[in-house]
Fold these 2 entries.
Entry 1:
Amino acid sequence: MGTAQQRPALKVVLDTNTVISALYHHGDTRRLSDHWRQGRLRLLASPAIVAEYVRVMAYPKFQADPDTAARTLNADLLPFLTPATPFQGNLPAPCRDPDDDAFLRAALGGRADWLITGDKALLTLHGRYPFEILRPGEALRRLSV
């Protein structure tokens, strides 16, 4: 009896709020980290995105002292990141929030399958890029199929 062929990992970019939710919260979004640990998701990130993750993980509201934040980052995120060279041209549809352009550029440059976000400014761009822009819940539904 043969084994079922495993699907290749989906290349995804996660916005900062999605990463923080997956690492620090116990809701549904937390299950995304299971998928990247199991190799079903390949996380793409540019240097600017990694810097943003690090900066936000240090916020006091997450009650993570710098050592705890560093341990979480080093154990639960960095080993699973694949460098993505950001797209340098004009974006097909820039985001209303220029700070979010880094996620679009990484997804374009890394040839992502999905950009996972809860950010309304990014979600309104769904259909205007060669990758899908999905809410975490939708991504989880698709991963469970």
Note: The first helix runs from residue 16 to 24.
Entry 2:
Amino acid sequence: MPADGVGVSGTTVTWAAPTSAAGCDVSPIAFYRIYRRVSETGAALPAGTVPLLSERIFATSGGRITQWTDSAHTNKTSYWVTSVDDLNAESIVAGPVK
């Protein structure tokens, strides 16, 4: 399951751990991956836009970490977050958020 409630405040990207949904088991989250894209125009990316593998920029050190501070953040930056379980299965992306 993807991370829930992804948002950006200043230079910090935050998200909530995924929750169980009807008929869906949530495997233990091993870590999260953060993706970043800087837009030339600064315009927000449309919903449903997915990141490229080359835009993967960070992985948390554990499944309990639900924020990350980007020292390279600008007002043209958009982010996605995925959760990764202990079998290295990656969720669909949550985001983009700007």
Note: The two ends are 21 Å apart (CA to CA).
